[in-house]
Design brief:
Elements (H helix, E strand, L loop, with lengths): L1 E6 L4 E13 L2 E13 L1 H5 L6 H22 L14 H10 L4 H11 L9 E7 L3 H18 L3 E5 H9 L1 E3 L4 E5 L5 E6 L4 E6 L6 E5 L5 H11 L6 H9 L27 H13 L5 H29 L4 E5 L6 H14 L4 E3 L3 H4 L3 H10 L25 H9 L1
The structure holds 5'-O-[(R)-(carboxyoxy)(hydroxy)phosphoryl]adenosine and zinc ion.
């Protein structure tokens, strides 16, 4: 099965073309024909975060040229002698799909009516979670391509994509093996918008064990970076300067470990971020060395919280595999801490961590999710900014919290 995948949930326009095949024994073979990521991060850096309207505008500008580039790389752009003429019905449908994006419709027509219908079986597109204005650009383009090429469009949950990116191991020549983990599997999802511990009792089924009650861990990295005068995205910057911090027995600027002993699987990073703010405010001269010490202590705190909760969940639910997913898994300290701790505490358990290039947002992970969800295409797809992996969440209700306090 050959899939064209579209990812536009945040500030990366990701387009991939992949072929997938079941090879039995819990393995699938994935061939990546192209995987292009166009990042808007440098543009958002001046605002210190992602602006949804800017993200939408940039995706709309980039998406058709990037799709054409991906098709070219995959050898799927045969030009036709005479541009295809749309039927009245097709014209009306495309006009409706792009009614808010006339420029995108022009781009779409100019680029796609002059090439032969490529040998692609389906389109996978991120439907959520993410920034809705950004998601719509991908969804509308996917829907329009589905109409033009008469192929199904499969909505994908971005977080499922992050989990699957971890389960891909590279072979040679752009080939990957996709492993089906042994269940129950535990996934820790850590990105700019999410911090969740998810139990997978079987393939494709998710139960949220806990999540952040305020900021996501990636968001905290980004905000702390800003306090330290570092550019967006802050995660890699914090990590870079933390490495230069002096190695001391006790941290010169100690930070709390919020909710470390809360007894559940929820997280809170807003307090940690605020603690950094108070620390920074008290320091008159924020030298590079002090900044590095604060960055290191922040990274240590975040790592300890994530690791402690994940190991506790792994023990409680007797999981057979652990999967890390999302942009924050690019963090070297977090990767190493998990590798060491899982090897020591759960020697029988395989830890899956995405390869560096697949840890942040990309089209390939959306294509892989699309392949596994191929039996569920949709005629109309809606952007769902807060789309969840599981319908019910274990996040305690206010009533439950009040009850807990009384106890
Ligand atoms: O998954 P992702 O690419 O986008 C979302 O779905 O949010 O994650 C982006 C997040 C950002 O908050 C970024 O600062 C963080 O991942 N990140 C890192 C590192 N690289 C990216 N955080 C910590 N250390 C890193 N090396
Ligand atoms: Zn992501």
């Amino acid at each position: 099965m050959r899939i064209l995948a579209i990812e536009t949930s945040c500030d990366e326009t990701g387009i991939a073309i992949l072929e997938s095949r079941e090879t039995g024994n819990r393995l699938h073979s994935i061939t990546m024909r192209s995987n292009i990521i166009l990042s808007q991060a440098s543009l958002h850096a001046q605002y210190g975060g992602v602006f949804p309207a800017v993200a939408r505008r940039e995706h709309a500008k980039a998406i058709i040229p990037v799709i054409i580039q991906a098709l070219k790389e995959a050898g799927l752009t045969k030009t036709v002698k005479k541009a295809r003429v749309l039927t009245m019905r097709e014209e009306r449908t495309l006009g409706k799909i792009f009614h808010k994006e006339p420029v995108l419709l022009d781009d779409f027509r100019a680029a796609l009516l002059s090439i032969k219908i490529p040998a692609i079986d389906a389109i996978a597109v991120t439907a959520g979670p993410g920034l809705e204005p950004a998601l719509w650009v991908g969804i509308n383009t996917a829907t329009a391509l589905g109409v033009l090429w008469s192929i199904p469009v499969i909505p994908v949950n971005h977080m499922e994509g992050h989990i699957l990116a971890s389960l891909l191991s590279p072979k040679n020549n752009n080939k990957f093996t996709l492993t089906t983990p042994k269940f129950p599997t535990l996934a820790l999802l850590i990105s700019g918008g999410h911090t969740e511990l998810v139990l997978m009792p079987r393939a494709g089924t998710y139960k949220i064990l806990g999540q952040t009650r305020d900021d996501a861990v990636g968001e905290a990295f980004d905000k702390v970076a800003r306090m330290l005068g570092l550019p967006y995205p802050g995660g890699p910057e914090i990590s870079r300067i933390a490495e230069t911090a002096p190695k001391l027995a006790t941290p010169p600027y100690p930070l709390p470990r919020p909710m470390l002993k809360s007894g559940d699987f929820d997280f809170s990073f807003a307090g940690l971020k605020t603690a950094v703010l108070y620390t920074v405010k008290k320091i008159e001269n924020l030298t590079p060395e002090i900044k590095a010490s604060i960055a290191k202590e922040f990274e240590d705190s975040a790592t300890e919280i994530l690791l402690t909760k994940t190991l506790a969940a792994a023990k409680k639910y007797k999981v057979r595999e652990i999967v890390l997913g999302g942009g924050v898994t690019a963090n070297k300290k977090i990767r190493a801490a998990f590798q060491n701790a899982v090897a020591e505490n759960f020697p029988e358990t395989t830890l899956f961590i995405p390869g560096h290039e697949l840890s942040t947002d990309n089209g390939l992970m959306i294509g892989v999710a699309g392949f596994l969800r191929a039996s569920k295409p949709k005629k109309t797809i809606r952007a769902q900014g807060t789309m969840r992996l599981a319908k019910s969440s274990r996040h305690p209700t206010l009533a439950e919290l009040r009850k807990k306090k009384k106890m």
